[in-house]
Amino acid sequence: MNSHIESLRLIELHLKMHITTICTFPVFDAEIMNSEIEAHASFIQSYLERIPYLSNEDSELIKSISNLIKVLRLMVRERLDLHSKLFKLSEGTDLGLSVDSSFSISARPNKFSKEQIQKLEEWYESSLEHPYLNSSSTEYLHSSTGLTKMQIKNWVSNKRRKEKSNQVSKELEPFLN
């Protein structure tokens, strides 16, 4: 295999790895990534100026690399814009975003109301023999609490887990008395 084909494949692989990095990690060094992208772009440009004839394989690899470079430039730019907006938002700078005046950020935004917890507790206490949801129980709790079915399922599951962890096994009871 020609060394220039190997070089093109390595560049293609490197660019794909950058895409994976952007998609996987919330923070990355955009300056380094931009400089590497531009270095690959200038290598491709000089490669095209040196080579008088491109094989089909060369042509396909260069098209792929060019598309990857375009996508990466866009992804890096969008990520930097997002980080900039988040930074401004954290500083309290107005970004022109409209936020409902009743919206507030609290330490625990999904905390259930006392009434919701009371309804869930009542159901749990009445179902101690078999504290597992069925469709009618889920529907009843959904309509009476206003919680989503997923929230209800999670609450009941967590409650069972807490109850189970509070129980002392029969083998250990004699040692506690």
UniProtKB/TrEMBL annotation:
It is found in: Nucleus. Residues 114-167 bind DNA. CDD domains: homeodomain. SUPFAM superfamilies: Homeodomain-like. Signal peptide: none annotated. Gene3D superfamilies: Homeodomain-like (1.10.10.60). The keyword Transcription does not apply. Keywords: DNA-binding, Homeobox, Nucleus. GO terms for cellular component: nucleus. The lineage of its organism: Eukaryota, Fungi, Dikarya, Ascomycota, Saccharomycotina. It comes from Suhomyces anneliseae. This is MAT homeobox alpha 2 protein. InterPro entries: HD, Homeodomain-like_sf. One of its GO terms (molecular function) is DNA binding. Residues 112-166 form the Homeobox domain. Pfam families: Homeodomain. PROSITE patterns: HOMEOBOX_2 (PS50071).
